[in-house]
Amino acid sequence: ADFLHIHLQGKMVQAQYGWGATYTPTEICALKGSTVEMQCSYTYPNSGNYHVTRVEQALWFSKEDKEPVDLRSDSEYEGRVEYHGNDLYYSSYKSYSRLRISDLRESDSAVYKFRFITSQPEGRYTGEPGVSLTVTDAPKVPSVLVSPSGEIVEDSSVTLTCSSDANPAATYTWYKENQTLLQLPDGSYHFTSISSEDTGTYHCQSENQYGQNSTSYFIDVQYPPKVPSVSVSPSGEIVEGSSVNLTCSSDANPAANYTWYKNNEASPKALGQTFTITDITSEHSGEYYCEVQNRRGHHRSTLQLNVAHIWMRLFPELSSFYSFSQLLRRNSWNNSPFSQIFIHNSKKSHPMVQTSNFCVPISFYPQTTHTSCQNTDYMSVCYTLEGLIQNTATKMSTIGFIHSISIFSTYTGSSASASATALA
Protein backbone atom coordinates (compact mmCIF):
# COMPACT_ATOMS: atom_id res chain seq x y z
CA ALA A 1 0.00 0.00 0.00
CA ASP A 2 1.05 3.58 -0.61
CA PHE A 3 2.07 5.65 2.37
CA LEU A 4 2.15 9.40 2.52
CA HIS A 5 2.84 10.86 5.93
CA ILE A 6 3.71 14.24 7.22
CA HIS A 7 5.15 13.48 10.63
CA LEU A 8 5.24 16.04 13.37
CA GLN A 9 7.00 15.52 16.67
CA GLY A 10 5.21 13.13 18.99
CA LYS A 11 3.51 14.58 22.02
CA MET A 12 3.50 13.00 25.46
CA VAL A 13 0.63 13.62 27.80
CA GLN A 14 1.56 12.52 31.31
CA ALA A 15 -1.15 12.21 33.90
CA GLN A 16 -0.77 11.70 37.58
CA TYR A 17 0.13 8.36 39.04
CA GLY A 18 1.90 7.15 35.87
CA TRP A 19 -0.88 7.32 33.27
CA GLY A 20 0.28 8.75 29.95
CA ALA A 21 0.23 8.54 26.11
CA THR A 22 2.50 9.68 23.30
CA TYR A 23 1.32 9.90 19.68
CA THR A 24 3.62 9.51 16.73
CA PRO A 25 3.05 11.47 14.55
CA THR A 26 0.56 14.01 15.82
CA GLU A 27 -0.49 15.20 12.35
CA ILE A 28 -0.75 13.31 9.09
CA CYS A 29 -1.59 14.56 5.62
CA ALA A 30 -2.21 11.80 3.07
CA LEU A 31 -3.73 11.37 -0.36
CA LYS A 32 -7.06 9.74 -0.87
CA GLY A 33 -6.68 6.02 -1.58
CA SER A 34 -3.36 5.69 0.25
CA THR A 35 -2.57 3.98 3.57
CA VAL A 36 -1.47 5.61 6.81
CA GLU A 37 -0.17 4.41 10.16
CA MET A 38 -0.20 6.14 13.52
CA GLN A 39 1.11 4.92 16.86
CA CYS A 40 0.37 5.57 20.47
CA SER A 41 2.87 4.62 23.18
CA TYR A 42 1.21 4.59 26.57
CA THR A 43 1.98 3.87 30.22
CA TYR A 44 -0.04 3.02 33.27
CA PRO A 45 0.92 2.44 36.94
CA ASN A 46 1.12 -0.83 38.77
CA SER A 47 -1.80 -1.48 41.05
CA GLY A 48 0.46 -2.46 43.94
CA ASN A 49 -0.04 -5.25 46.41
CA TYR A 50 1.69 -7.52 43.95
CA HIS A 51 -1.35 -7.50 41.65
CA VAL A 52 -0.51 -7.45 37.97
CA THR A 53 -2.34 -4.83 35.95
CA ARG A 54 -3.57 -6.07 32.62
CA VAL A 55 -4.86 -4.10 29.62
CA GLU A 56 -8.22 -5.69 29.07
CA GLN A 57 -9.38 -3.52 26.17
CA ALA A 58 -7.67 -1.15 23.74
CA LEU A 59 -9.22 0.71 20.85
CA TRP A 60 -8.86 3.59 18.42
CA PHE A 61 -11.73 5.93 17.75
CA SER A 62 -12.64 9.17 16.01
CA LYS A 63 -16.27 9.44 17.10
CA GLU A 64 -17.75 9.69 20.54
CA ASP A 65 -21.35 9.00 21.36
CA LYS A 66 -21.30 8.90 25.15
CA GLU A 67 -18.73 6.20 24.74
CA PRO A 68 -15.97 6.01 22.10
CA VAL A 69 -16.84 3.90 19.02
CA ASP A 70 -14.19 1.33 18.15
CA LEU A 71 -13.09 1.81 14.54
CA ARG A 72 -13.24 -1.94 14.04
CA SER A 73 -17.00 -1.86 14.65
CA ASP A 74 -17.62 1.31 12.63
CA SER A 75 -19.22 0.38 9.28
CA GLU A 76 -17.46 3.29 7.56
CA TYR A 77 -14.09 1.66 8.25
CA GLU A 78 -15.10 -1.93 7.69
CA GLY A 79 -12.25 -3.94 6.21
CA ARG A 80 -9.92 -0.95 6.19
CA VAL A 81 -8.45 -0.79 9.74
CA GLU A 82 -5.87 -2.94 11.51
CA TYR A 83 -4.48 -2.79 15.06
CA HIS A 84 -0.97 -3.88 15.90
CA GLY A 85 0.90 -3.74 19.20
CA ASN A 86 1.51 -5.35 22.58
CA ASP A 87 -1.47 -3.86 24.31
CA LEU A 88 -4.14 -6.51 24.47
CA TYR A 89 -4.15 -8.82 27.44
CA TYR A 90 -0.48 -8.33 28.09
CA SER A 91 1.06 -7.28 31.29
CA SER A 92 3.25 -4.33 30.60
CA TYR A 93 3.94 -1.02 32.20
CA LYS A 94 4.93 0.44 28.85
CA SER A 95 2.99 -0.58 25.75
CA TYR A 96 2.16 0.70 22.29
CA SER A 97 -0.64 0.36 19.77
CA ARG A 98 -0.37 1.02 16.05
CA LEU A 99 -3.38 1.87 13.85
CA ARG A 100 -3.32 1.29 10.09
CA ILE A 101 -6.04 2.72 7.84
CA SER A 102 -6.02 1.74 4.16
CA ASP A 103 -7.84 3.03 1.09
CA LEU A 104 -8.25 6.45 2.65
CA ARG A 105 -11.37 8.47 2.00
CA GLU A 106 -11.91 12.17 2.41
CA SER A 107 -14.42 11.35 5.14
CA ASP A 108 -11.56 9.78 7.11
CA SER A 109 -10.22 13.24 7.89
CA ALA A 110 -10.56 13.46 11.68
CA VAL A 111 -8.71 13.36 15.00
CA TYR A 112 -7.91 9.80 16.08
CA LYS A 113 -7.39 8.89 19.73
CA PHE A 114 -6.34 5.82 21.58
CA ARG A 115 -8.16 4.54 24.67
CA PHE A 116 -7.34 1.61 26.90
CA ILE A 117 -9.02 -0.02 29.84
CA THR A 118 -7.05 -1.92 32.50
CA SER A 119 -7.92 -4.43 35.15
CA GLN A 120 -7.63 -1.75 37.83
CA PRO A 121 -10.83 -0.27 39.22
CA GLU A 122 -11.50 2.92 37.25
CA GLY A 123 -8.37 2.08 35.35
CA ARG A 124 -9.19 3.56 31.95
CA TYR A 125 -7.41 6.22 30.03
CA THR A 126 -7.77 8.20 26.73
CA GLY A 127 -4.65 9.73 25.29
CA GLU A 128 -4.76 13.37 24.29
CA PRO A 129 -4.64 15.24 21.98
CA GLY A 130 -4.70 12.41 19.41
CA VAL A 131 -3.53 12.35 15.80
CA SER A 132 -4.98 14.75 13.29
CA LEU A 133 -5.46 13.11 9.89
CA THR A 134 -6.18 15.16 6.78
CA VAL A 135 -7.02 13.24 3.62
CA THR A 136 -6.25 15.24 0.50
CA ASP A 137 -7.48 14.64 -3.02
CA ALA A 138 -6.90 15.96 -6.51
CA PRO A 139 -10.02 17.58 -7.96
CA LYS A 140 -12.75 15.34 -9.31
CA VAL A 141 -14.23 15.99 -12.76
CA PRO A 142 -15.92 19.37 -12.33
CA SER A 143 -19.62 19.96 -12.78
CA VAL A 144 -21.04 23.07 -14.44
CA LEU A 145 -24.14 24.92 -13.27
CA VAL A 146 -25.83 27.37 -15.64
CA SER A 147 -27.91 30.13 -14.13
CA PRO A 148 -30.67 30.76 -14.93
CA SER A 149 -31.46 27.23 -16.02
CA GLY A 150 -33.23 26.42 -19.27
CA GLU A 151 -32.66 27.70 -22.78
CA ILE A 152 -30.09 30.45 -23.24
CA VAL A 153 -31.49 33.40 -25.17
CA GLU A 154 -29.53 36.22 -26.81
CA ASP A 155 -29.16 39.43 -24.75
CA SER A 156 -29.91 37.65 -21.46
CA SER A 157 -27.62 37.52 -18.42
CA VAL A 158 -25.99 34.12 -17.89
CA THR A 159 -23.58 32.79 -15.27
CA LEU A 160 -21.52 29.59 -15.53
CA THR A 161 -20.36 28.15 -12.21
CA CYS A 162 -17.78 25.38 -11.98
CA SER A 163 -17.45 23.14 -8.91
CA SER A 164 -15.35 20.11 -8.07
CA ASP A 165 -14.83 17.88 -5.06
CA ALA A 166 -11.25 18.45 -3.94
CA ASN A 167 -9.19 18.71 -0.78
CA PRO A 168 -7.81 21.26 -0.38
CA ALA A 169 -10.34 23.31 -2.30
CA ALA A 170 -9.61 23.74 -5.99
CA THR A 171 -9.13 26.90 -7.96
CA TYR A 172 -10.98 27.22 -11.25
CA THR A 173 -10.11 28.58 -14.68
CA TRP A 174 -12.44 28.98 -17.67
CA TYR A 175 -11.25 28.57 -21.25
CA LYS A 176 -12.83 28.95 -24.68
CA GLU A 177 -10.87 27.78 -27.70
CA ASN A 178 -7.65 27.73 -25.65
CA GLN A 179 -8.15 31.32 -24.58
CA THR A 180 -8.30 32.06 -20.86
CA LEU A 181 -11.42 33.95 -19.87
CA LEU A 182 -11.90 36.37 -17.03
CA GLN A 183 -13.54 34.85 -13.97
CA LEU A 184 -14.92 35.71 -10.58
CA PRO A 185 -13.15 34.54 -7.40
CA ASP A 186 -15.74 31.80 -6.84
CA GLY A 187 -14.87 30.11 -10.14
CA SER A 188 -17.81 31.49 -12.10
CA TYR A 189 -17.92 33.20 -15.47
CA HIS A 190 -20.57 35.81 -16.18
CA PHE A 191 -22.16 37.03 -19.44
CA THR A 192 -23.84 40.38 -18.92
CA SER A 193 -25.59 40.25 -22.30
CA ILE A 194 -24.89 37.00 -24.09
CA SER A 195 -24.81 37.05 -27.89
CA SER A 196 -24.82 34.55 -30.73
CA GLU A 197 -21.03 34.95 -30.98
CA ASP A 198 -20.77 33.44 -27.49
CA THR A 199 -22.06 30.10 -28.77
CA GLY A 200 -19.38 27.44 -28.38
CA THR A 201 -17.64 24.96 -26.11
CA TYR A 202 -16.29 26.20 -22.79
CA HIS A 203 -13.78 24.33 -20.62
CA CYS A 204 -13.51 24.55 -16.84
CA GLN A 205 -10.29 23.38 -15.19
CA SER A 206 -10.12 22.72 -11.45
CA GLU A 207 -6.74 22.44 -9.79
CA ASN A 208 -5.04 22.11 -6.43
CA GLN A 209 -1.53 21.11 -5.43
CA TYR A 210 -2.37 17.43 -5.85
CA GLY A 211 -3.66 17.50 -9.39
CA GLN A 212 -6.14 18.91 -11.83
CA ASN A 213 -9.21 17.93 -13.79
CA SER A 214 -11.42 19.53 -16.39
CA THR A 215 -14.79 19.35 -18.07
CA SER A 216 -16.41 20.98 -21.08
CA TYR A 217 -19.82 22.56 -21.56
CA PHE A 218 -21.47 23.65 -24.80
CA ILE A 219 -23.29 26.98 -24.74
CA ASP A 220 -26.09 27.11 -27.32
CA VAL A 221 -27.34 30.68 -27.61
CA GLN A 222 -30.75 31.01 -29.24
CA TYR A 223 -31.61 34.11 -31.23
CA PRO A 224 -34.21 35.34 -33.74
CA PRO A 225 -33.46 35.31 -37.47
CA LYS A 226 -31.04 37.91 -38.77
CA VAL A 227 -32.06 40.05 -41.76
CA PRO A 228 -32.34 37.47 -44.57
CA SER A 229 -30.45 37.77 -47.83
CA VAL A 230 -32.45 37.15 -51.01
CA SER A 231 -31.22 36.42 -54.53
CA VAL A 232 -32.44 35.41 -57.98
CA SER A 233 -30.79 32.75 -60.12
CA PRO A 234 -29.81 32.59 -62.83
CA SER A 235 -28.65 36.17 -62.64
CA GLY A 236 -29.16 38.65 -65.42
CA GLU A 237 -32.17 39.28 -67.63
CA ILE A 238 -35.32 37.29 -66.89
CA VAL A 239 -37.29 36.57 -70.05
CA GLU A 240 -40.70 35.02 -70.48
CA GLY A 241 -40.78 31.25 -70.70
CA SER A 242 -37.66 30.74 -68.58
CA SER A 243 -37.36 29.40 -65.02
CA VAL A 244 -35.97 31.25 -62.03
CA ASN A 245 -35.16 30.41 -58.41
CA LEU A 246 -35.72 32.90 -55.63
CA THR A 247 -33.47 31.96 -52.71
CA CYS A 248 -33.59 33.21 -49.13
CA SER A 249 -31.11 32.56 -46.32
CA SER A 250 -30.82 33.78 -42.74
CA ASP A 251 -28.77 33.03 -39.66
CA ALA A 252 -31.06 31.87 -36.84
CA ASN A 253 -31.09 29.54 -33.84
CA PRO A 254 -33.13 27.44 -33.74
CA ALA A 255 -33.30 27.05 -37.51
CA ALA A 256 -35.89 29.31 -39.11
CA ASN A 257 -38.88 28.50 -41.30
CA TYR A 258 -39.03 30.28 -44.68
CA THR A 259 -42.15 31.55 -46.44
CA TRP A 260 -42.36 33.40 -49.77
CA TYR A 261 -45.05 35.98 -50.48
CA LYS A 262 -45.87 38.26 -53.37
CA ASN A 263 -46.60 41.80 -52.29
CA ASN A 264 -50.29 42.54 -51.65
CA GLU A 265 -51.17 38.84 -51.68
CA ALA A 266 -52.18 37.21 -48.41
CA SER A 267 -51.56 33.61 -49.42
CA PRO A 268 -47.96 32.39 -49.46
CA LYS A 269 -46.42 31.54 -52.81
CA ALA A 270 -44.05 28.91 -51.47
CA LEU A 271 -42.61 27.36 -48.30
CA GLY A 272 -38.90 26.79 -47.87
CA GLN A 273 -35.73 28.66 -48.70
CA THR A 274 -36.13 28.35 -52.48
CA PHE A 275 -39.13 29.45 -54.55
CA THR A 276 -38.97 28.14 -58.13
CA ILE A 277 -41.02 29.74 -60.91
CA THR A 278 -41.21 27.79 -64.17
CA ASP A 279 -42.42 29.08 -67.55
CA ILE A 280 -42.35 32.60 -66.18
CA THR A 281 -44.59 35.32 -67.66
CA SER A 282 -45.02 39.04 -67.21
CA GLU A 283 -47.69 38.33 -64.61
CA HIS A 284 -44.94 37.10 -62.31
CA SER A 285 -43.33 40.54 -62.30
CA GLY A 286 -43.57 42.39 -59.02
CA GLU A 287 -42.21 42.61 -55.51
CA TYR A 288 -41.68 39.44 -53.49
CA TYR A 289 -40.64 39.09 -49.89
CA CYS A 290 -39.21 36.24 -47.87
CA GLU A 291 -40.25 35.94 -44.24
CA VAL A 292 -38.09 33.92 -41.85
CA GLN A 293 -39.36 32.94 -38.42
CA ASN A 294 -38.47 30.86 -35.39
CA ARG A 295 -39.82 30.88 -31.86
CA ARG A 296 -37.46 33.75 -30.97
CA GLY A 297 -38.70 36.18 -33.62
CA HIS A 298 -39.02 36.91 -37.33
CA HIS A 299 -37.60 39.08 -40.11
CA ARG A 300 -38.19 39.70 -43.82
CA SER A 301 -36.46 40.95 -46.95
CA THR A 302 -37.87 41.93 -50.36
CA LEU A 303 -36.76 41.75 -53.98
CA GLN A 304 -38.14 43.08 -57.26
CA LEU A 305 -38.71 40.60 -60.08
CA ASN A 306 -38.86 42.08 -63.59
CA VAL A 307 -39.81 39.83 -66.49
CA ALA A 308 -38.81 41.03 -70.00
CA HIS A 309 -41.27 40.51 -72.91
CA ILE A 310 -40.32 38.25 -75.76
CA TRP A 311 -43.20 39.34 -78.05
CA MET A 312 -44.56 42.73 -79.11
CA ARG A 313 -48.21 42.84 -80.13
CA LEU A 314 -49.41 44.49 -83.33
CA PHE A 315 -52.89 45.22 -84.69
CA PRO A 316 -55.31 43.87 -87.28
CA GLU A 317 -54.87 47.07 -89.27
CA LEU A 318 -51.20 46.14 -89.72
CA SER A 319 -51.85 42.55 -90.73
CA SER A 320 -51.34 43.43 -94.37
CA PHE A 321 -47.70 44.18 -93.54
CA TYR A 322 -46.90 40.45 -93.49
CA SER A 323 -45.56 40.88 -97.01
CA PHE A 324 -42.60 43.12 -96.25
CA SER A 325 -39.48 41.08 -95.58
CA GLN A 326 -41.61 38.55 -93.62
CA LEU A 327 -40.89 40.54 -90.48
CA LEU A 328 -44.30 40.10 -88.93
CA ARG A 329 -45.40 36.69 -87.79
CA ARG A 330 -48.35 35.15 -86.07
CA ASN A 331 -47.52 33.74 -82.68
CA SER A 332 -48.97 32.92 -79.28
CA TRP A 333 -51.18 35.29 -77.34
CA ASN A 334 -49.30 37.63 -75.04
CA ASN A 335 -50.67 40.04 -72.47
CA SER A 336 -48.12 42.74 -73.16
CA PRO A 337 -49.16 46.03 -71.57
CA PHE A 338 -49.12 48.01 -74.85
CA SER A 339 -51.93 50.56 -74.95
CA GLN A 340 -51.97 51.75 -78.56
CA ILE A 341 -50.04 52.16 -81.78
CA PHE A 342 -49.99 55.30 -83.94
CA ILE A 343 -49.50 55.09 -87.71
CA HIS A 344 -48.42 58.28 -89.48
CA ASN A 345 -47.55 59.11 -93.09
CA SER A 346 -47.73 62.11 -95.36
CA LYS A 347 -51.29 61.39 -96.40
CA LYS A 348 -53.08 60.58 -93.16
CA SER A 349 -52.62 60.00 -89.49
CA HIS A 350 -54.76 57.44 -87.80
CA PRO A 351 -54.59 56.08 -84.19
CA MET A 352 -55.46 52.42 -83.75
CA VAL A 353 -56.23 50.62 -80.50
CA GLN A 354 -54.37 47.41 -79.80
CA THR A 355 -56.62 44.39 -80.25
CA SER A 356 -54.60 41.72 -81.99
CA ASN A 357 -52.31 38.80 -81.24
CA PHE A 358 -49.92 39.37 -84.14
CA CYS A 359 -46.44 39.42 -82.69
CA VAL A 360 -42.88 40.12 -83.68
CA PRO A 361 -40.27 38.01 -81.83
CA ILE A 362 -37.77 40.51 -80.53
CA SER A 363 -34.81 38.18 -80.50
CA PHE A 364 -35.59 36.94 -84.02
CA TYR A 365 -33.87 39.81 -85.85
CA PRO A 366 -30.24 40.31 -84.88
CA GLN A 367 -29.34 42.35 -87.96
CA THR A 368 -30.51 45.67 -89.36
CA THR A 369 -31.63 45.53 -93.00
CA HIS A 370 -33.06 48.10 -95.34
CA THR A 371 -36.16 47.35 -97.39
CA SER A 372 -37.26 49.45 -100.35
CA CYS A 373 -40.98 49.71 -100.93
CA GLN A 374 -42.83 50.53 -104.14
CA ASN A 375 -46.36 50.42 -102.73
CA THR A 376 -47.19 53.75 -101.13
CA ASP A 377 -50.84 53.21 -100.27
CA TYR A 378 -51.86 54.34 -96.82
CA MET A 379 -52.27 50.88 -95.30
CA SER A 380 -49.42 49.28 -97.18
CA VAL A 381 -46.21 50.70 -95.81
CA CYS A 382 -42.79 49.13 -96.03
CA TYR A 383 -39.97 50.14 -93.73
CA THR A 384 -36.87 48.95 -91.99
CA LEU A 385 -37.89 47.02 -88.85
CA GLU A 386 -35.28 44.42 -88.09
CA GLY A 387 -32.66 46.60 -86.45
CA LEU A 388 -35.41 48.80 -85.08
CA ILE A 389 -37.04 45.92 -83.24
CA GLN A 390 -33.68 44.77 -81.94
CA ASN A 391 -32.95 48.22 -80.53
CA THR A 392 -36.39 48.33 -78.98
CA ALA A 393 -35.79 44.94 -77.42
CA THR A 394 -32.56 46.14 -75.87
CA LYS A 395 -34.30 49.09 -74.34
CA MET A 396 -37.19 46.94 -73.21
CA SER A 397 -34.90 44.43 -71.55
CA THR A 398 -33.29 47.23 -69.63
CA ILE A 399 -36.47 49.06 -68.67
CA GLY A 400 -38.75 46.10 -68.09
CA PHE A 401 -42.35 47.06 -68.86
CA ILE A 402 -43.22 48.74 -72.13
CA HIS A 403 -46.46 50.66 -71.99
CA SER A 404 -46.79 51.88 -75.57
CA ILE A 405 -45.12 51.83 -78.94
CA SER A 406 -45.41 54.34 -81.77
CA ILE A 407 -44.62 53.57 -85.40
CA PHE A 408 -44.15 56.54 -87.74
CA SER A 409 -44.30 56.21 -91.54
CA THR A 410 -43.13 59.02 -93.78
CA TYR A 411 -44.09 58.98 -97.44
CA THR A 412 -40.99 59.53 -99.50
CA GLY A 413 -42.25 58.99 -103.06
CA SER A 414 -41.02 55.60 -104.24
CA SER A 415 -40.17 54.32 -100.78
CA ALA A 416 -41.21 54.64 -97.15
CA SER A 417 -39.33 54.47 -93.87
CA ALA A 418 -40.46 53.95 -90.29
CA SER A 419 -39.18 54.16 -86.76
CA ALA A 420 -40.43 52.59 -83.52
CA THR A 421 -39.97 53.76 -79.98
CA ALA A 422 -40.62 51.83 -76.78
CA LEU A 423 -41.92 53.96 -73.94
CA ALA A 424 -41.70 52.72 -70.35
Short description:
The chain has 424 residues and is mostly beta strands. It is built from one helix and 35 strands.
List the main descriptive attributes of the protein structure presented here:
5-stranded mixed β-sheet; 35 strands; rod-shaped; Ig-like_dom_sf; Immunoglobulin-like; single chain; mainly beta; 1 helix; 424 residues; disordered N terminus
Overall number of strands: 35
Q: Which whole number gives the mean pLDDT?
A: 73
Number of domains: 4
Structural class: mainly beta
How would you sum up the major sheet? 5 strands, antiparallel
Helix proportion: under 10%
> Considering the protein shown, what is the CATH homologous superfamily of the largest domain?
Immunoglobulins
Our measurement of the CA-to-CA distance between the termini, rounded to an integer number of angstroms, reads 97 Å
CATH topology of the largest domain: Immunoglobulin-like
CATH architecture type of the largest domain: Sandwich
Main-sheet strand order equals 1-2-4-9-8
Overall geometry comes to rod-shaped
How much β-strand is present in the residues?
Answer: 35-45%
The poorly predicted ranges are: 1-15, 311-424
Write down the CATH class of the largest domain.
Answer: Mainly Beta
Q: What is the alpha-carbon Rg in Å? A: 50 Å
Q: Give me the number of helical elements.
A: 1
Domain Ig-like: 139-220, 225-308
Pfam families: Ig_2 (PF13895), Ig_CD22 (PF24518)
Organism: Myripristis murdjan (pinecone soldierfish)
Protein name: B-cell receptor CD22
